[in-house]
Amino acid sequence: MPAIPAFTPNPQQPFRFFDLPSELRRKIFKYLLTEDRTVDLSPENQHRAADRLSQFLTCHRFHEEAYPVFYGGNTFRIFPTHPNFYGSKARSILPRLSPRYRAAIVSLELRLGPGWSKPPRTWAASDRLRLGECTSVRNLIVFVECDPSHQIFKGFRVSKDFFTDFSSNLLGGLIERLLFLDNVIFDRYPAVRKDGELMTRLRSVVEERRKRIVWVPGKWDDPVTPRGLVNKTLRSDLLCAIEAIMGHPQA
To answer: Which DSSP letter does residue 87 get?
Structure first.
């Protein structure tokens, strides 16, 4: 009887990620590292971002291919709004990053509304933000939470034009320091009207600096005949005012 040959296992070869085409690797990085939410300083980052960023430690090549996708594919908030990081002593996320990471960012967000009666001193377009090193930034998203020039804020605001002046000066300073900026994208809460004093001033600031204005689709369809909607609009403004006065910045 012939001898039965000894069984020799044929282990499956390990999957070699970098054997994939670069286009496919980039799609995988985008799936793993980007999300729709704005990146801000938040205690949640240790759960949301830590797992993603820990992948950078896989190897040098992985890091070099992955970090431009993470920093170029997400939107980063310039001034933190989470209560744990909000205030005059809180630093922006930008100076916390290394120069190469700042240079990879494509989209930034400015949130206007938190601290409308007393904005933090750190909310200023200063050299501390290192905006000059953000050479890839093409988009600045301006999310407007409320317009304190509206009559509903009378009695609570510093003055009618205080927040309008502050916001327009801040936006203008940011645009001037973002040397390669192309687009200013306006978003809002429903109570903020496109023809209000704040938005009129902000739009003028952008136009004077010859940047392209983009209105988030579906967010700026103000009613053509507001008379029948006055009470509804005022209630919306009142809720916005209460939120702001309570001092709970939106994340």
So the answer is: S
- Residue among 116, 108, 142, 54 at smallest CA distance from 241: 116
Region of residue 201 (phi > 0: left; psi between -120 and 50: alpha; otherwise: beta) = alpha
230/238 Cα distance (integer angstroms): 12
Max Cα distance, the chain (Å)? 104
Do 29 and 19 meet the contact criterion of CB atoms below 8 Å apart?
A: no
* DSSP letter (8 states) at residue 34: -
- DSSP result, 174-186: HHHH-TT--EEEE
Q: Determine contact, residues 159/208, Cβ cutoff 8 Å.
A: no
Helices 60-73 + 22-33 axis angle, to 10 = 60
Half-sphere exposure of 88 (CA within 13 A, CB side): 4
**Predicted TM-score (pTM) of this structure:** 0.83
pLDDT digits (tens, 9 = 90+) for 169-228: 999 999 999 999 999 999 999 989 999 999 999 999 999 999 999 999 999 986 544 444
Residue with tokens 């009207």, as numbered in its chain: 193
d(CA 221, CA 227): 16
Residue type, 16: R
Which two tokens mark 48? 């949301």
Low-confidence ranges of the chain (pLDDT < 50): 224-231, 245, 247-251
Measured in degrees and rounded to the nearest 5, phi and psi for residue 156 equal -115, -30
